[in-house]
TrEMBL record:
Native organism: Streptomyces camponoticapitis
Keyword 4Fe-4S attached: no
Biased composition (Polar residues): 265-274
Protein's UniProt keywords contain Protein biosynthesis: no
Enzyme Commission identifier(s): 2.1.1.37
Name of the protein in its database record: DNA (cytosine-5-)-methyltransferase
Classification via InterPro entries: C5-Methyltransferase, C5_MeTfrase, SAM-dependent_MTases_sf
Family to which the UniProt record says this protein belongs: Belongs to the class I-like SAM-binding methyltransferase superfamily. C5-methyltransferase family.
PANTHER family linked: CYTOSINE-SPECIFIC METHYLTRANSFERASE, DNA (CYTOSINE-5)-METHYLTRANSFERASE 1
């Protein structure tokens, strides 16, 4: 079997499914488990730190681990960095067969920090049976020193090991997500997969195959380079499921206007007001505070220009649709990702006094696509629970590039269909 620790909603598992293989995922979060079950993935709901290893001894071909990153991530308080000496001690002790987790945990500033040592508990027990054949682990970049400690131990056990930082955008993921990776194998030389994409397209040469340009958000979402569909469906509110950004009933109003052909984006790049029911009446003049309504539709193809902002802080990463997204992370309101119209401008419509907001929260479907999950992936839970799963998941396309060499299976990136 392939054992997937901290399996989440199924980033690694979906990659294996596309490759024609299945794993068994251990996961604690109930909503991630519901997502996995709905996606048809084998799942044991359990605390990885409490589950025994003996059911897997002598039966595990590959081991995957992506411990929770909240304690280490830039999006959190990063108390895991202060706990690093304790985590390193736990890894060293577990590799020697000594379980000092309880004592060390009492000194941790973030109780999640020690979860990064859990894979060693499984690896040490499995190694006594000459397993697993290969290992793949992923975490935020600050965990790389810990992966190097793992690497030294695994090499002592006979593994070939590679550790380093990879950018998901270099493998066709529409997101510049940098992650610390550990790859290990008993039967082949461990090395990172060859990148397939680059920030600027590279032609084929005598020194190797060419690389395609990074995949943009527009390509992944099936928009045009600058088009943004009429926002009749939006995630709205905060991660906990707060208020919708449009007033009640406005979605239907916008949908009806679009279906009647009376919703026309303005040339300035901001969404336009719906047209009056009588297009024959002259459109009144307006100002910024009282913009004109009833602007007749024309044959000219006006476009919106939208960007994705990674959070609402002053130093937030902002990327246009023609670029990959920045790293997606969710969890509290300061870390929301929202679509920002360019130029940002609020306009008032004459239908129900609708106020179009200056930004619209990214939907779960859009976030999933930018992580290379299918458009119809069955995310479970409310908005906050869905976004938490998506932000913490491994992009399946990146996972497939990491796993295919271990499985000696061909990878066709086209199998990871995004926009639909």
């Amino acid at each position: 079997m392939i054992l997937d620790l901290f399996a989440g909603p199924g980033g690694w598992s979906h990659a294996l499914t596309v490759l024609g293989v299945r794993d068994i995922g251990l996961e604690w979060d109930p909503w991630a488990c519901r997502t996995r079950v709905a996606a048809g993935q084998l799942t044991v709901r359990t605390d990885v730190a409490m589950y025994p290893v003996w059911p897997f001894t002598g039966r595990t071909y590959g081991l995957i681990a992506s411990p929770p990153c909240q304690a280490w991530s830039m999006a959190g308080k990063r108390l895991g960095l202060l706990d690093q000496p304790l985590v390193h001690q736990a890894v060293a002790d577990l590799a020697q067969g000594r379980d000092t987790r309880e004592r060390l945990l009492a000194s941790c500033r973030d109780e999640r920090s020690l979860l990064a040592a859990e894979p060693m508990r499984y690896l040490a027990a499995l190694n006594r049976h000459g397993q697993p054949e290969w290992v793949a682990m992923e975490e935020v970049p600050d965990v790389l020193p810990l992966w190097k400690q793992y690497a030294a131990i695994l090499r002592h056990w006979g593994f070939s090991v590679w550790t380093g930082i990879l950018n998901a955008a270099d493998y066709g993921v529409p997101q510049t997500r940098r992650r610390a990776i550990l790859l290990a194998s008993r039967v082949r030389t461990a090395e990172p997969p060859e990148p397939t994409h680059a920030q600027a397209a590279e032609p084929e040469s005598l020194f190797g195959p060419g690389r395609e340009q990074w995949v943009s958000m527009a390509t992944a979402l099936g928009w045009g380079a600058t088009d943004r569909p009429v926002p009749t469906v939006c995630a709205g509110g905060g991660p906990g499921g707060g208020p919708e950004p449009f007033p009640s009933g406005s979605r239907k109003t916008l949908t009806d206007a679009r279906d009647r052909g009376t919703w026309t984006p303005r040339a300035t790049g901001s969404p336009s007001s719906p047209q009056r029911e009588d297009p024959g009446q002259p459109a009144p003049s307006g100002t910024r505070d009282n913009p004109p309504v009833g602007r007749p539709a024309t044959a000219e193809a006006h476009r919106w220009s939208w960007s994705l902002r990674s959070n609402n802080q002053a130093n937030a990463t902002i990327r246009s649709l023609s670029e990959p997204a920045g790293t997606l992370f969710f969890g509290h309101r300061a870390n929301e990702c929202v679509w920002v119209p360019e130029p940002s401008e609020t306009r008032r419509a004459d239908v129900g006094q609708l106020v179009v907001p200056e930004s619209i929260r990214i939907t779960a479907r859009e976030a999933g696509l930018l992580q290379t999950f299918p458009a119809d992936y069955p995310w479970a839970g409310n908005k906050g629970q869905q976004f938490s799963q998506i932000g913490n998941a491994v992009p399946p396309l990146l996972a497939a590039h990491l796993l295919a060499p271990h499985l000696q299976l061909p990878l066709n990136p086209d199998d990871f269909t995004l926009a639909a």
